[in-house]
Amino acid sequence: MSPNKRFSLPALFTALALWLKQFSALIVASRPLRAWKRFTQANGPTLCGGIAYTALFSIFGALTIGYTVFSRILGGNEELMDSLLDTIDDFMPGLLKINGKDGLIAPNSLILESGLTLTSVIAGVVLLWAALGCMSAIRRSTRAMFDLPVKQSNMALAKLRELAGLGILGLSVLVVTVASVSVTAAGRWFIGAFNLPDFANWAIPTGTIFISFLIDGAVFLLVVRVLAGVQLPTRDKLLGAGLSALGYGALRQVGTALVASSASNASGNFVVASLAVFITLLLWVNFSATIFLVVCAFAANPTQAELDMATPIPGQQPLVTIANQPVDPISQQISRNRALILREILVALAAFQLGKRAQRKQAVKNCTEAGNKDRLTV
């Protein structure tokens, strides 16, 4: 074995090992993995479990208040009421007993007494207090992702924020319902008026999905800003809204199929079916909270802007200011390492090429010597 070959292969392996090490460091320092690190450092899984736990005690109160108010507003419009129930079923599959499907709550049981009595007032206050429990868990968890103080000194302002958050979620359901009905009616009229072919009907569900995407993104922004009181740079607002909307859209599709599968497998046994729907709903709320908090953690790790009023979680690399601009030191270190990676790769390639050239020369020399020996032998 030639000396050049012994030099070139170790050099190549060393350069590849260095490249893999730098590449793995680049991946670990990427924004998504740093977001997941922030999520775990802030006890994100535990917070998601807390949100799911409080949601189980808050869902009935929130649905009772919201459904009672919407039934008074919508009145006798059966189409909108049915669409409202379908929208709630899309947001929380398996919760309502509608369209012949198993569920935990019958819609008729969600309406409070029409008369203003002491009993109805007390029931409304109790249900509202229970519904605000979930909003409080979401507010505290969101602020924890941004490493902000969980407890606010002004308790009245905190409760007003929680009440506003509850109103945001309720209005989002109503807006999705009205928008879906409007898009469906307008699409059918447009297709019929212009005698469009049947395949044009795909535009109706596409428009509905697009509207749901926009509303999901808007809900994320409003919950973070109004409920949690966190200000985000514009770039992080758009990224967070888009990621949360994608996550919720995918979760709704998977959740609906999962609930339908669990209900069909447990059909014929009321206790088992109710327990399956209950557990599935608990998991669905937990996954929803996970998506929301992970996106919050992603937005809390900006690369070009610094969050107002936020400081890094202990152990997280803070932003530094260079030329009056916030810069992530991890990104700066990665930028410096790129030149080192490129240099090592070029050195390894050059050594490999030199080794191959030396091998060819040695092979030619060996062949020449072997030929000379053959001639001398003859």
UniProtKB/TrEMBL annotation:
Membrane-spanning ranges: 116-138, 163-190, 202-226, 238-260, 272-300
PANTHER family: INNER MEMBRANE PROTEIN YHJD
Membrane in keyword set: yes
Pfam families: Virul_fac_BrkB
Highest taxon above the source species: Bacteria
UniProt protein name: YihY/virulence factor BrkB family protein
Transferase in keyword set: no
Keywords, alphabetical: Cell membrane, Membrane, Transmembrane, Transmembrane helix
UniProt membrane topology term: Multi-pass membrane protein
InterPro entries noted in UniProt: Virul_fac_BrkB
Localization (cell): Cell membrane
Principal subcellular localization: membrane
Organism of provenance: Jonesiaceae bacterium BS-20
One GO cellular component, as annotated: plasma membrane
